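The data are quoted verbatim for completeness:
=====
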Amino acid sequence: MAKCDVCGKGVLFGNNVSHSNRKTNAMWKANVKRVKCKVNGGSKRMHVCTSCLRSGKVERA
């Protein structure tokens, strides 16, 4: 799974814990999109999480 090129957000690992306290492996993926962004006057395809897109840390091309 891809990481955000802006903030570095990626996959988190942990455990799902049931009511009976059994543990199974869990994986939470970041909402990462591949978008065209303006970088140094040109445009470049980058992996960006939606929270960075909404906050305006990245300008779309």
Summary: The helical segments are 50-55.
